[in-house]
UniProtKB/TrEMBL annotation:
Residue ranges of the TM segments: none
GO terms for cellular component: nucleus
Annotated EC: 2.1.1.216
Similarity-based family: Belongs to the class I-like SAM-binding methyltransferase superfamily. Trm1 family.
Keywords: Methyltransferase, RNA-binding, S-adenosyl-L-methionine, Transferase, tRNA processing, tRNA-binding
Descriptive protein name: tRNA (guanine(26)-N(2))-dimethyltransferase
Pfam families in UniProt: TRM
Phylogenetic lineage: Eukaryota, Fungi, Dikarya, Ascomycota, Saccharomycotina
GO molecular function list: tRNA (guanine(26)-N2)-dimethyltransferase activity; tRNA binding
Comp. bias (Basic residues): 92-102
UniProt-annotated stretches for the region Disordered: 87-125
Native organism: Torulaspora globosa
Length: 572
């Protein structure tokens, strides 16, 4: 039972303090189901503001490498709370009174329909904000030790209850013990259940969650339907998938299709971005049948897994747009060029009375011939997958602000990496799925590898935009067509014109260069005449980002770093 003293901030603080004190006394006297805990009987791990007791024989899952995931999740839930979460601040159901939400492409995400940003970029508190009462109900559906739930209880404001659930009795005992040891058992409720049973029950009882965190072994697929049905309007879902051999590997196209409803870009450099798009496709397709839409706030490919942060809301109109936001991709198995094909068209029309409407129609295609026009290679088909922006810039900015202004290195060990990875994500071209690496293209065309900034300057001089990607180092996203990419890469070679006579006529590179008059007829060459490799705005932006000395990888990876296997059953 929770104690309510009122809604003003002093009362909330008093309520929290009193509940913590009662919990402390209960754990000292061993009453109310509590037991005496002797920390010497356990290994103690400190992460964030939590201290977790592990049985000396490891029977419950803990992976220290996932600290990045947990640090980032704390930032993201706080950002969601500030921007969309608190119903008292944002109107009924947390909605922003029907105002248009900014998208990834919004240059100044602070300009429309939101609370003002302050000088230091913090979101302006509303009148009600200072007095915000704990309201947030979080479900950690697959909790293991309870570490994540306990960190959320310590580190996230406005949390009223966190249900930390696991299927294993040992895990639930660990959650109970650790919640008590950390004095957050007034917030963290341990629960023993199959996650799906728990979530469908929440739906049936109408006790939905504002935030649902799904962090399974392998794929999230079995938990998606129940989570979508037991989340509050505008709720935040945090989703991990660690089965990258399926989502991004070469071996299991049929398994990828069965689990995610789409095929990945096997053997292609962009396979980690296609993994993200497949997970977003799964979420959106599953949501659509309940007239719900899933908006990606932040979608990251990290080490050996993907993690997406999405906002879920009932929106029949957005569901109508899903067809045109879904695509298949043709990618050449030889040269790697790719071409995206949306599955539908949504065309905005304005009537003579200035009334806007959208016409939905079938897509036209295919965008390619049966053989690649550059190298005559065979196309492989990937998708269907999500084709719209992967991130919401407003959200990333708020996460970065929290990471910079509210968190410190001693508590958040992966703070610099969060800054690095999210800065890259924020600056990604949002309407240009996938990327290429000049390294790869150079190996195809047998060129010296040019500096990244030279290629960006070249494409920029032709009027195209470029960005880095968080998903792979030294790779570029661009809105340039492949004709321009091949041409700029070829011309970038300091060694000058390639001597075709010296190339293997069976090689992919030879075919691309020999076929040039076909794929780049004279009539199109005029547009490329202004090519220059002098620094320009595009290359300047890239250099500025690279100078930030971005930390993208896990610092100090440990021995046997990577996804961790399930723990063994305890020896009896
Ligand atoms: C990868 S671990 C979770 C790690 C945890 N979220 C963290 O941050 O440390 C996955 C957990 O899911 C639990 N699990 C697997 N299937 C489940 C199910 N159907 N219902 C509930 N828990 C389940 C396992 O027992 C395991 O403890
Ligand atoms: Zn090709």
């Amino acid at each position: 039972m929770s104690l309510e003293f009122g809604s003003g901030r002093p009362f909330v603080v008093a309520s929290k303090m009193l509940r913590a004190a009662i919990s402390k006394i209960k754990s000292r006297i061993g009453g109310g189901g509590s037991s005496f805990i002797n920390p010497d009987d356990y290994n103690v791990v400190k992460e964030g503001r939590a201290e977790i007791l592990f049985p000396k024989a490891e029977t419950v899952f803990y992976n220290p490498v996932q600290q990045f995931n947990r640090d980032l999740s704390v930032c993201c839930i706080k950002a969601w709370d500030n921007l969309y979460g608190n119903p008292a601040r944002n109107g009924k159901n947390g909605r922003r009174n029907g105002r248009k939400r900014p998208t990834c492409s919004d240059e100044d995400a602070t300009s429309s329909g939101k609370r003002r940003k302050l000088k230091n970029n913090a979101v302006e508190p509303s009148a009600a904000e200072g007095a915000a009462a704990p309201y947030m109900k979080i479900l950690e559906a697959l909790s293991a030790t309870g570490l994540r739930a306990i960190r959320y209880a310590h580190e996230i404001p406005h949390v009223k209850q966190i249900v930390a659930n696991d299927l294993l009795p040992d895990a639930v005992e660990s959650i109970r013990r650790n919640a008590e040891f950390n004095k957050v058992d007034h917030i963290v409720t341990p629960n023993l259940d199959d996650a799906n049973v728990l979530m469908y029950r929440a739906k049936a009882e109408n006790t939905k969650y504002h935030v649902i965190d799904l962090d399974p072994y392998g794929t999230v697929t079995p938990f998606v339907d129940a989570a979508l049905q037991s989340i509050e309007e505008d709720g935040l879902m945090l989703v991990t998938c660690t089965d990258l051999s399926v989502l991004a590997g070469n071996g299991y196209p049929e398994k990828c299709f069965a689990l995610y409803g789409g095929v990945n870009m096997a053997s292609h450099e962009s396979s980690h971005e296609s993994a993200l798009r497949l997970v977003l496709n799964l979420l959106n397709q599953s949501a659509a049948k309940y007239r719900k839409s899933v908006e990606p706030l932040l979608s990251l490919s990290i080490d050996f897994y993907v993690r997406v942060f999405v906002k879920v809301r009932t929106s029949p109109i957005e569901v109508k747009n899903l067809q045109s936001k879904t695509m298949i991709t043709y990618h050449c198995s030889q040269c790697g060029s790719y071409h995206n094909q949306p599955l539908g068209r949504a065309t905005e029309r304005v009537s003579s009375k200035q009334k806007k409407s959208v016409k939905y129609s079938v897509a036209q295609g295919p965008p390619v011939d049966s053989k690649c026009k550059f190298c005559s290679g065979t196309y492989h088909l990937a998708g269907p997958m999500y084709g719209a922006p992967l991130h919401n810039k407003e959200f990333i900015e708020e996460v970065l602000r929290i990471n910079r202004e509210e968190h410190t290195d001693d508590v958040y060990g992966t703070r610099k990496r969060i800054e690095g990875m999210l800065t890259l994500a924020k600056n990604e071209l949002c309407d240009s799925p996938f990327y290429f690496s000049p390294n790869h293209i150079s190996s195809v065309l047998k060129l010296q590898v040019p500096p990244l900034k030279r290629i960006v300057a070249g494409l920029g001089s032709l009027g195209y935009n470029c960005s880095l990607t968080h998903a792979q180092p030294s790779s570029l996203k661009t809105d340039a067509p492949w004709e321009a990419i091949w041409h700029v890469m070829k011309e970038s070679d300091h060694a000058g014109k390639k001597d075709l006579a010296k190339m293997n006529p069976n090689s992919t590179g030879f075919r691309i260069l020999a076929n040039e008059p076909q794929w780049l007829p004279d009539s199109h060459r005029e547009a490329l005449a202004k090519l220059s490799f002098e620094p320009n705005e595009q290359s300047g932006q890239l250099e500025k980002l690279r100078k930030l000395k971005i930390v993208r990888y896990q610092e100090n990876p440990t021995k046997n770093w990577g996804p961790k296997a399930r723990p063994n059953a305890p020896s009896k």
